[in-house]
Amino acid sequence: MSIRDDPAAPRWRRWLLNRFVLVPGTLAIIAIVWNAWVFTHNHGKIAGRVVDASGRAVEGAEVKLWVFNFTTFVEQASTQSKSDGSFQFTSNPSHNIQLSAEKPGVGRSRIPVRLYFQSEDLTLKQPLQLTEAATEGK
Amino acid sequence: MTRRQRRWPIHLALIAVCFVMLVPFYWVLKTSISGENIFSYPPSIVPRDPQPFYYVDVWYAIPFARYFLNSVVVSILTIVANVVLNAMAGYSLTQTFPGKQIVLMLFLSCMMIPFQATIIPAYLITGKLGLLDSYLGLALPMFSTIICIFVFKASFDAVPRSLIDAARVDGLSEWRIIWKVMMPLAKSAVATNVILSFIWSWNNFMWPLIATRSQDMQTLPLGLARFISYQEDTTGALYAFCIMVLAPGILLFLLAQKEFVQGLTTGATKG
């Protein structure tokens, strides 16, 4: 006999502890937690590093943020990498982006980045690695 | 030969039927997380590089939250109206009154008329009431369904007549008999009404297509049609959309399947 059918159980337990309340309640809690997470992590920050083929930081590489716009990617913002190769964008509005980096004489790179929600803050785990092969491949 | 041994061929056949019926669902789910082309050969049974981003694409490609809200509001209105109106109609059909057989015949014959045949009168009536492009207007033609009336009737018929007479002797009005006596005894019929009216309302495409004018009032099936017209490469995202539309109905059915089956079989063993 389930608690819902047990007449000896208190009324509030019969009302609360059944699958018609527990399942939607659990889903509601998951939705609230997820939205709280989104709300606190949607500042549009994309950070990463640019390195050359041997893994050394590249200063002054032009890094561009491309945003998917219905059918194609359009340039949203650009910046220069710092002396330690790091870069940061603070205005990403999208969830489907690409990052490209280029420095004449060193090489270029372009990677797709998928996010779980729009403007998700992200620090790239893998650096953008500039290679001549990518330059030739274009 | 034991009873269990005699039954294994039946179970084997049932497993095979379940497999055949579940494969399309699995395929939709697999494609929604892999985006694999449905024509690729050889097809992969296990999804390659599964990822959830097609769901994210769907969420942002169209106003999914708005469509979802519209579908939820219309479905809730439909469910409430179905439970209330069908219970009243079902109870009245358990009573004896002049012309009862004619009413029953009328109901049964109306079941044979497809909704498409009544869609123009339904549109005109909804328009005259000023309910086009509103939640109430979207739910109005589904406020009562004849099948669900008969589900309630079968359930109420199974209640002993003496119980209703006792309630009358105690001074309860017919209205209170329905809600205080009959409905607590007809939980399975309520569950059947809830599930059927929800699924019909949730999946309805034709009526919302005709009754809505603004984009803000569209429901999920219309959103699906719009989504297909938007996107070029739809494979993964389209299947993700299908899962997102199907999920609430499947969840509701799984939650109330015991009551649903009971509701459909109530009265079947009535001598």
From TrEMBL, chain B:
UniProt function note: Part of the ABC transporter complex UgpBAEC involved in sn-glycerol-3-phosphate (G3P) import. Probably responsible for the translocation of the substrate across the membrane.
Presence of the UniProt keyword Membrane in the record: yes
Coiled-coil blocks: none
Self-association state and partner proteins as the record states: The complex is composed of two ATP-binding proteins (UgpC), two transmembrane proteins (UgpA and UgpE) and a solute-binding protein (UgpB).
Membrane topology term: Multi-pass membrane protein
Gene source species: Bradyrhizobium jicamae
Matching CDD domains: TM_PBP2
Annotated Pfam families: BPD_transp_1
Protein family (similarity comment): Belongs to the binding-protein-dependent transport system permease family.
ABC transmembrane type-1 domain sequence ranges: 68-256
PANTHER family: ABC TRANSPORTER PERMEASE PROTEIN MG189-RELATED-RELATED (PTHR43744), SN-GLYCEROL-3-PHOSPHATE TRANSPORT SYSTEM PERMEASE PROTEIN UGPE (PTHR43744:SF8)
InterPro entries given in the database record: MetI-like, MetI-like_sf
Protein's recorded name: sn-glycerol-3-phosphate transport system permease protein UgpE
Residue ranges of the TM segments: 12-29, 67-90, 102-123, 135-156, 177-200, 236-256
UniProt keyword annotations, A-Z: Cell inner membrane, Cell membrane, Membrane, Transmembrane, Transmembrane helix, Transport
